[in-house]
Amino acid sequence: MNFKDLTPEQLENAANMLKAIAHPVRIAILNYLEDGKKLTVTEIHEMLNMEQSTTSHHLGILKDKGVLASKREGKNTYYFLKHNNLANIIDCVSKCQS
Hints:
Blueprint: H1 8-21, H2 24-32, E1 39-40, H3 41-48, H4 52-64, E2 68-73, E3 76-81, H5 86-96
Antiparallel strand pairs: 1-3, 2-3
């Protein structure tokens, strides 16, 4: 796909995803969910060593902006990366900073 093929909506969605990612807590969450991992809010908040409500807030932002997806299984809701190629985007952004 070429730049000229992108619609303003696609660019706005991508910008919103990058804005959502641009927070230390959310970066940490994404690190925990790399490689296809699925984790519950409880597992993530314990790893982050922060309040579950704060963790839920950050997960909600990432989900709302299309970075994460969730699936309910019994009493638990599992969060996971919505796009497997998110690592490519992060890699691209890091290369642009050089």
